[in-house]
Amino acid sequence: MSFTAPVVLSGQKVQLEPLASEHLDGLQQAAQDGEVWRLWYTRVPHPAEMGAEIARRLALHQAGTMLPFALRRQDNGELCGMTTLMNIDTQNHRVEIGSTWLAASAQSTGINSEAKLLLLGHAFDTLGCIAVEFRTHFMNHKSRAAISRLGAKQDGILRNHQLMPDGSYRDTVVFSIIQSEWPAVRRNLHHLLGRRLEDS
Length: 200
Known about the structure:
5 helices, Aminopeptidase, eight-stranded mixed β-sheet, 8 strands, alpha+beta
């Protein structure tokens, strides 16, 4: 299967849909939930910039380096954020899960953990990846804790790695899960979500 072939990934809490321009209104509303674009240590598009961000991600999809998704809650059918498989390296069978953001009301609900479970399953079981990376701002302690909780291991810190919109430099913390670790990580994610492996 092509690394960038559009696919719908469905779980009990969230459905990952191939990102499309039709998601604009719902994603603008999701970003307004908690005004999550105001967090200085992460990049969440302002509602007024959402159309440009969707176009940017779709252009990267066309270029073969990103598989972007919109996140839809299963309980009420509302869009609640975005995520991607990005920095796709088909030659070396590696991807990064990133450019993820969630509406405030979707945080700490299990939606993020289930989305990661679905993306990791697609990467390892369908695409045959040998490693999946996660990257986050050094100061984003909530994100770092969440990535560690998944079972990912820290590879290192890239210092002064990126220039942020406010002019500061981002130190990027790099984590990864390798293919041999995936069965244990999958079991851990099912445990975090409070379900048995045979339930899904």
